[in-house]
Write a structure and sequence with these properties.
This protein has 248 residues and is α/β, with parallel strands linked by helices. It is built from 9 helices and 7 strands; from the N terminus they run αβαβαβαβαβααβααβ. The structure holds NADP nicotinamide-adenine-dinucleotide phosphate. It holds the Pfam family adh_short_C2.
Amino acid sequence: MNAEEVGTNGRVALVTGASRGIGAGIARQLLDRGLRVAGTYRSGGELVGKLAADAPGRVLPVAFDLAAPDTAEALVEQVAGHWGRLDSLVLNAAVWQGGKLVRADPGDWWRVIEENLRSTAALVRAAIPWLAEGVNPSVVLVGSAVGTVGFPGDTAYASVKAAAVGFARSLAKELAPQGVRVNVLAPGFVETDMTAAIPEGARQKIADATVLGRFGTVEEIARAAVFLAEDATFCTGAVLAADGGWTL
Ligand SMILES: NC(=O)c1ccc[n+]([C@@H]2O[C@H](COP(=O)([O-])OP(=O)(O)OC[C@H]3O[C@@H](n4cnc5c(N)ncnc54)[C@H](OP(=O)(O)O)[C@@H]3O)[C@@H](O)[C@H]2O)c1
């Protein structure tokens, strides 16, 4: 079944971290395609509310904190219960904290691992029964090029992003019998709040090391995520690099 045959009317996506950056871009593009979108926020509820104003009746803003994975099941039930279905799960929100391992506070280091991985597993687990009943169902994990090639000061974050690949590939095999695809998007450096604090000199070095010579935009990364979620009906367990060639 290709994406046109599947259609989008009435289908429901849950996008985490939809208040800003890449998640907001993904939510907007899914709405443009006619899906209904539940967008999670931690502090930016009013920003998800803006999306809702642009697509009346098709956006459900929902609070979710990665630090509270025990609330994942209630979140999924709230979303799927609201619309009676859940077809697509885009796990985009992430906790980032940098710092060289030698100086890292062990508590902070493990917090990055735990909050990201626990919430991922809990959300997916809660969503599986709904996705199994969905149309063109899929899970997209937003990983990172850093999970493949590493970055100084990012041992915890890069571990999470590398784990996303093993998680997705195993899950792809587990859920294939139910027709649920599972893929990873691995962006390079993108213009968002997450990268805003990178000093100018370092930004230039990263741009120079990127084959396309620049950071990516939210719209470009969102297009790649929506491709995996909606169009890539013969892709599962795939890792799509959207990094301008930074990892080449
Ligand atoms: N930007 C890059 O260069 C880049 C590169 C590779 C991969 N990525 C990945 O792309 C994804 C999105 O990144 P971004 O750059 O768009 O980030 P961003 O602009 O900093 O936005 C982060 C989003 O995640 C939410 N969030 C942050 N901490 C959270 C928490 N503890 N619990 C729940 N939600 C939380 C934020 O919600 P509130 O605003 O409501 O708090 C916001 O919606 C992440 O998985 C990131 O690792 C980014």
